[in-house]
Amino acid sequence: MGTTALFITNPFSSIFHQQNLPSPLLHPHRFLPKRVSALHCAHNQNPISSPALIRRWVLVSGVSLLSSAALGLQNECLAAVKQGLLAGRIPGLSEPDEQGWRTYRRPDEKSGGHGVGWSPIIPYAFSVPQDWEEVPVSIADLGGTEIDLRFGSLKEGRLFVIVAPVRRFSDVIGEDATIEMVGPPEKVINAFGPEVIGENVEGKVISMSVAEYSGRTYYQFELEPPHVIITATAAGNRLYLFNVTANGLQWKRHYKDLKRIADSFRVV
């Protein structure tokens, strides 16, 4: 399906004040014995002195040792192969393309979400430069229980995905929600923007746009300060907020990549 986009002029105040960001949303070694000094009989504590018995014991022990060593080597080789296949790989993250960008798709086997129950979540996808890595999200995440994913780059910035039940906001929205059911762009940013930046969004929204991809509508908002691009949509019984943010210097130097990341977000 084709792509349509509607750009909306800023309905908010254009006066900006630099201030510190209080929101935590924005600011994872032998099988051989050491030494055989003496052999003891099973029926007494006298050391075995017979050379024949000693030789027999050594022979049997040697065979056993070789078998164990061979098995251990096999296991180590298998582990090494597995490690080689998985080393450096993040589940759901593709290999870099010819431009050095990778696509992340939320794995189907991933649990139903951090803090949003165990029901299935419709997967989402986005693209990032190859130096961006996943940042662990714990149940004690200061950003809240609905943070589903975090990614970041020391050089460019960071992103996080909020996946929240739409019933948290409306009892009349069913299991096939759309962002239009949640509300128009102005209502969505006023209601959910503070969850992202930790403060009221009045006077911080510098642009808004509405676009449709494959029949799904997406709202996008750019705010400053703090520097953040929020892409919002709804699917199933979830509201998705995809948030790309950076400090002032990162924003100035890498805005083009940050905007490309924000624009790449899709619920699949």
Automatic annotation (TrEMBL):
One of its GO terms (cellular component) is extrinsic component of membrane. SUPFAM superfamilies: Mog1p/PsbP-like (SSF55724). InterPro entries: Mog1/PsbP_a/b/a-sand, PsbP_C. One of its GO terms (molecular function) is calcium ion binding. It comes from the Eukaryota. Coiled coil: none annotated. GO terms for biological process: photosynthesis. It holds the Pfam family PsbP. Residues 124-267 form the PsbP C-terminal domain. This is PsbP domain-containing protein 4, chloroplastic isoform X1.
